[in-house]
Amino acid sequence: MTIIDRTKKAFINQNVKFFLTLLSGSVIAQGVVFLITPILSRVYTDEMFGTLTLFSSITLTLSTVVALRYELSILLPKREKDAVSLLILCFIIITIISLVTLFIILMYHEFFNGLFDNGGLGRFIFLLPLGIFLHGMFNTLTYWLNRQKKFKSISFVRINKSLSMSSVQLINGFSAFQYLGLIPGLIAGQLMSFLHTIISASKSIKRNVHHISINRIFFMAKRYQKIPKYNTLLTFTNTLSNELPNILIPKYFGLAIGGQFGLAIRLIKTPIGLIGEAVSQIFFNKASETYNNEPTRFHELVKQTYIKLFLLALTGFPILFISTYFFEYILGSEWTETGIYSRLLIPWLFLMFLNSPISSLIVILGKQRSLVIYDLLLLLLRLTALVLGYHYFYNIIYVLVLYSMVGMVFNSFLIFYFIKLSKQADH
């Protein structure tokens, strides 16, 4: 075996090790959530789950763009002093936007209380800026830890987050404060994950802190200005279109059905996200290196990643589909609708599972503008499916079928588009 062959084999083994480290952390973290869910579903009502779903969706939609997507650029520079400047830039943006959000809620709290009253968010409306801040900081620091190849730390953070969230929700469910529902546990999990990530990243940040300057921060912000310019709108519209059912279903059909649907999404997306998120972190890292150093291998990397994801999906999704028939027995007799809703969404989630880890190539190739129209159209058609499904059928089943069909069509197109882009990168 030549030196080149040994080096290549070691590199492959290293990436497998990184993948397994992230995957094991995600499995344990989500395993905690899975184990605690049958207890929580018997302690809390479906209306309380509906409130949690609505709060989580609003927080997620806003927090994914709270750093204006500059966190994506942390992995891209070759020099550490450039990367740490981007990290501090993200911290500044997140803090400013979170404070502005708090100010807006304080100024117009009566309007927001009325807007979300149907979702039972009145008492939690002031926690939205905190949730946005914590999630945004955690997400940004995760990219920094990824750059430092601190995959074990990322895994521990995820486990800590699940344990903290589940523990508070469980204790609260059997206390006199049960009426507060599940949101305090969510905030507790976000807080612990933020503290854990900042501690894990502190040493590497301190090592590069002498490189930080206002001029360099502004320079890096300008250098990667295409990311917020195109990717912020792209991510916001994509996240909003994914979260639309969680926001509109409680409004149209009530908190009980919103809770049933929210738990269905949570249960089926969790195992999908276990592998998808781990692959996404590794792919982004590997794809960035390949594009910078070996661009002729970029298309092959994308193709092989798709093939591996497809084989994993062929194995896992039939098992996932069958498992939905047992939700009623696992969660309790009052959760019969959860399994039905889950089965309607699985075809769309199958295709989404293939695309989600690969989508970061848009950032690597600087093609954010090309997907803005795609995501705006997707958002419009998903909104149309939900609104028309409600007004013409007034049936949650028809609404979910229409929503799932729109997702299937658009994700099918995305597969061919990503493969085409990867071929162009070879040149």
From TrEMBL:
InterPro entries, sorted: Poly_Biosynth_Transport
Cellular component aspect of the GO annotation: plasma membrane
Keywords: Cell membrane, Membrane, Transmembrane, Transmembrane helix
Compartments, record wording: Cell membrane
Bilayer topology term: Multi-pass membrane protein
Transmembrane segments: 18-40, 52-72, 84-109, 121-145, 306-326, 346-365, 372-390, 396-419
Top-level division of the source organism's lineage: Bacteria
One Pfam family recorded for the sequence: Polysacc_synt_3
UniProt name for this protein: O-antigen/teichoic acid export membrane protein
